[in-house]
Automatic annotation (TrEMBL):
GO-annotated biological processes: phospholipid biosynthetic process
Name of this chain's protein: EF-hand domain-containing protein
Places the protein is found: Membrane
Organism: Acanthoscelides obtectus
SUPFAM superfamilies linked: EF-hand, Glycerol-3-phosphate (1)-acyltransferase
GO molecular function: calcium ion binding; lysophosphatidic acid acyltransferase activity; O-acyltransferase activity
Any single GO CC term annotated in Swiss-Prot or TrEMBL for this entry: membrane
Alphabetized UniProt keyword annotations: Acyltransferase, Lipid biosynthesis, Lipid metabolism, Membrane, Phospholipid biosynthesis, Phospholipid metabolism, Transferase, Transmembrane, Transmembrane helix
Pfam families attached to this UniProt entry: Acyltransferase
Coiled coil: none
Keyword tRNA-binding listed: no
InterPro entries linked to this entry: EF-hand-dom_pair, EF_hand_dom, LPCAT1-like, Plipid/glycerol_acylTrfase
Amino acid sequence: MSQTKTKTKFTGGISHEEYTPEVLLNPFVHRLELDTTYEKIKTYILTVILLPIRVSLICFFVITGWIFASIGLWGLTEEELRQKPLEGWRNRLRSVCCALIRCVFSAGGFRIRVLGRPASRKEAPVVALAPHSSFVDSVAMVIMGGPSIVAKAETARIPFFGKLINFTQPVYVWRDDPDSRHNTIREIVQRATSDLDWPQILIFPEGTCTNRSCLITFKPGAFYPGVPVQPVCIRYPNRLDTVTWTWEGPSALKLLWLTLTQPYSNCEIEFLPVYHPSEEEKRDPKLFANNVRAVMAKALGIPVTDYTYNDCKLMKKAKEMNLPLAPSLVEVRKLRNKLGLDKTNIEETLVESVLSCRDCSKVSYMEFVSVLNIPPNNVASQQLFKIYDKENTGMIDFRDYFLGVLAISKERTPLEALQVACKIYDRIGYGRLCPEDFCKAVCHTLALSKEYAMEVFEQADRNQLGYITFENFVNYAQKKAEFASLFSLSMQEKMTQRNVENCPNYYDKKID
């Protein structure tokens, strides 16, 4: 880190044995590995013997269900699907499709246990299911007889399954429509309060997948109609969790493979008593949502947290940039809020004024709390330090902390984040970055590989000075096609693309 006008003196130190922070939940991370030799051998054998049989049966039932759904939708326009519920033979065909999809889960080895009683549409027009952790959660739709779901419009284009989902008359969310949220809520209210015999509306109020360690903030969409809601809890009581699909963890294909190579998988669906809102809850959908969440958390025996879908977007952005400890940044933001650091923005001040320390790559706990001016005996302070002290050495790289906090704040573009990184990793001072510092800056903001970063450094350092500045890189990058997106997209355009899950791919030579 460079030298400065404002200097911070470090005093004291603390070893990692002197603090024992509590575990902080991160609902967006899932770890899954086959740890034992027995598990690996069993999985390989079942991959050869069991997997082909299950895949064949699943394909048969899915294709058969798709054929029936295609027949049921024949002659209907999209507008007609949204205007009135299916009747007569089409409605009976929907029950046939549900039975076929239940066969899909049976063929996949799922043993489903149902607790409680599913309420009718008259009793509860809306059903709230949580925690949402997997594409397997769709099993609840089968048990309920094919309710309408709230889904992204892109879902309709999924091969085979898109037609089956369309047959349930879902409420589609058009993310490229600026009025999408308003229109979705209006349609939910209209259906939930309609006198027509619409299917129940099934909503995953968390809005994204978690690892089921807690219930995150419920979106209020399902609660705007102010009608009775049936809470439904879903559990997967298996020794090996092969279904949880989060923002950081195994891919969908890996989960599918491991699930289909288990002898069987348990799934438990519990229908709780219908929740009738009070007059106050009818007027305040957020209060209604929070109270339903509390009921479900109690039944599940897990805590509630104030994480939201926006935290998922933060993780997605951090991972794309390859920020240090990207999966943990939602925890960092939460702890900073607890400590009041989000109000003081001391990190911004320190980096702008230039921080002075012996070696910012090796900072002790007492030095850490001293610089940030936070209480050393506070559990949140200890947890924050522990996130960056993964090896339990009692020392962290302070630069990684600064970059993680600042790169995702103020909706910075990748180029702006790189400018911040250049300040943070500049050990020489005066804005000059040696090859090692430059590599760290671009690897942790633009997600370049170390090898490619060195190529860029050598080409940008035309005079072979052994260092380059941020301005040197900008001048070089403006002439290269692979960096064109850094300069061609405005922040608004980037946010629009991010909202439709089509984030810009800045370079071909990114870290895997």
